[in-house]
């Protein structure tokens, strides 16, 4: 129920959804149609501004760790939500947060971590059989990454379950007290760290795919940008998740 409810709320909190609803209402409530449409334009302009979303992201994201400051770890866990599987082409496709996987694989090859835990089940309501960590494991097998270096956790559907199931894996490995490297996107790291710490896991954050970018001001930052709007969608979804987890006592 929580999983389905979160999907519905995710739609309602998105700025583009607000614009759509305001425009729709403007046609039904013609007396105030201009006000509704003007409000839609203002929201669209505000949330498509690259400078605003960049600075908000800079305040929210956990900073990227420089590799030279990184110790060696027995385990690194990559949180799911970065890939999908095309059943027609039978091919794995990496999405927006694919840097999580790329950096995790790079750290494994650099021997900064001994084993990579892939944590993530199905994110689909209608396709529970499409479990992300399973088709990613097949992808790694296709590129000849040793199976002994990969630990699969394919049951979790959210960040809390990632943490709970990772704790069980560490217990099975008799490594409950060992620090592990937590590899996920900068916008998602605060909630992820809070969930893992709630379960008593000693995690070291390793931030990937930061959305804040370089601290430079150019003319482009003042022009409407569709990517900025997409970044707000990601960030607001994460804020909703963080608040929901806090209310539920997950963090």
Quick take:
The protein is of the alpha/beta class. Helix content is 48%, strand content 15%. The strands form two sheets. A five-stranded parallel sheet has the order 5-4-1-6-7, sandwiched between helices. A two-stranded antiparallel ribbon has the order 2-3.
Q: How would you describe this protein?
A:
The protein is α/β, with parallel strands linked by helices and 251 residues long. The protein contains nine helices and seven strands; from the N terminus they run ααααβββαβαβαβαβα. The protein is globular.
Task: Describe the structure using short key phrases.
251 residues, alpha/beta, Rossmann fold, 2 domains, five-stranded parallel beta sheet, two-stranded antiparallel sheet, 9 helices, 15% strand
The biggest sheet, with number of strands, parallel, antiparallel or mixed sense and barrel status, is: 5 strands, parallel
Q: Mind telling me the C-alpha Rg?
A: 20 Å
Supply the CATH architecture of the largest domain.
3-Layer(aba) Sandwich
Mind telling me the CATH class of the largest domain?
Alpha Beta
| Gap between N and C termini | 19 Å
Q: Which fold name corresponds to the CATH topology of the largest domain?
A: Rossmann fold
Shape verdict? globular
The helicity comes to: 40-55%
Could you outline the blueprint of secondary structure elements for this entry?
Blueprint: H1 2-12, H2 15-28, H3 33-47, H4 50-60, E1 73-79, E2 83-86, E3 91-94, H5 99-109, E4 113-119, H6 132-142, E5 150-153, H7 159-172, E6 180-185, H8 189-198, E7 203-208, H9 226-248
Parallel strand pairs: 1-4, 1-6, 4-5, 6-7
Antiparallel strand pairs: 2-3
């Amino acid at each position: 129920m929580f999983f389905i409810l979160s999907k519905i709320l995710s739609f309602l909190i998105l700025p583009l959804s607000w614009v759509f609803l305001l425009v729709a209402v403007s046609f039904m409530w013609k007396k105030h149609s201009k006000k509704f449409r003007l409000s839609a334009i203002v929201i669209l302009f505000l949330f498509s501004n690259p400078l605003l979303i960049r600075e908000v992201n800079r305040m929210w994201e956990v900073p990227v760790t420089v590799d030279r400051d990184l110790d060696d770890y027995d385990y690194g866990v990559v949180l799911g939500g970065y890939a999908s599987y095309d059943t027609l082409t039978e091919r794995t496709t990496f999405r927006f947060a694919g840097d999580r996987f790329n950096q995790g694989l790079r750290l494994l090859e650099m021997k900064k971590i001994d084993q990579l835990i892939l944590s993530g089940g199905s994110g689909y309501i209608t396709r529970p059989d499409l479990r992300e960590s399973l088709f990613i494991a097949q992808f790694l097998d296709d590129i000849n990454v040793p199976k002994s270096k990969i630990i699969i956790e394919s049951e979790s559907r959210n960040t809390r379950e990632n943490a709970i199931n990772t704790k069980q894996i560490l217990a099975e490995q008799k490594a409950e007290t060992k620090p592990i490297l937590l590899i996920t996107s900068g916008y998602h790291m605060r909630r992820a760290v809070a969930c893992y710490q709630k379960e008593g896991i000693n995690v070291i954050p390793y931030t990937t795919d930061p959305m804040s970018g370089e601290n430079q001001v150019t003319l482009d930052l003042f022009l409407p940008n569709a990517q900025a709007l997409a970044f707000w969608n990601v960030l607001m979804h994460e804020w909703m998740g963080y608040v929901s987890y806090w209310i539920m006592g997950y963090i």
